[in-house]
Amino acid sequence: MKKLLLHSCCGPCSTHVIEVLKDRYDLTIIYFNPNIFPFEEYQKRLEEQKRYAKLMHIDVIEGDYDEQTFLQLAKGHELDKEGGDRCSICFEIRLGQTAKVAKQRGFDLFATTLSVSPHKNTAQINSIGQKVAKQYGVEFLPENFKKQDGYLDSIRLSKQYNLYRQNYCGCRFSIRKEKSEL
After folding, report:
1. How far is the CA of 56 from the CAs of 19, 59, 105, 111, 161, in angstroms?
2. Contact (Cβ atoms closer than 8 angstroms) between residue 58 and residue 18
């Protein structure tokens, strides 16, 4: 069975994706999300990811938290709409690190839970995944995990396992967007 390193943005998004992949691959999760603000939110999401992964008997690799790097790279894109260039920058940071770790640790391929969200552009995510896969010389699994009601399944599984579900994507700029739409 091939070894797959799964980038996860949070426990709830990982639920459905794990269900889809667990019988096809030897899974390990990488939680690398330096964009998440504030740090307490990052920790809460990490702990929920670890709790769910433990229930599923999946190891978790914890990446470094470094919001300053994200902020530096996203400078000038603070007012971008969701799904724009700021999100592409964020995806590239996270998927690039995932590809790097996958290569360093001998994984056969990597993937991400990001495409389970109906708020994320799967083509944008998969394009970035393919780009960083070439850069690091490791295979990327392009998927659209929102297919076949993947997002709804993630909500159902989150309720079943009593997982904390956040109400914004993660970065400080998505907080502004979410609150303005309420």
Report:
1. 10, 9, 21, 18, 11
2. yes
d(CA 45, CA 9): 8
pLDDT of residue 176: 62
Task: Quote the domain boundaries for residue 42.
Answer: 3-181
C-alpha span between 99 and 97 (Å, rounded) = 5
Count of domains in the chain? 1
Q: What's the chain's length in residues?
A: 182
Q: Tens of pLDDT along 1-18? A: 999 999 999 999 999 999
Structure token digits, residue 123: 């083509």
Q: pLDDT by residue (tens digit) across 95-128?
A: 999 999 999 999 999 999 999 999 999 999 999 9
Give the domain CATH number at 112: 3.40.50.620
User: In what helix (H) or strand (E) does residue 140 lie, and over which residues does it extend?
Assistant: strand 139-140
Q: What is the pTM of this model?
A: 0.95
Amino acid at 152: L
Helices (H), the chain: 11-21, 39-55, 67-73, 85-104, 122-136, 150-160, 172-181
Tens of pLDDT, residue by residue over 24-59, are 999 999 999 999 999 999 999 999 999 999 999 999
In this structure, how many other beta carbons lie within 10 angstroms of the beta carbon of residue 38?
A: 11
Assign 31 to helix, strand or coil. Answer: strand
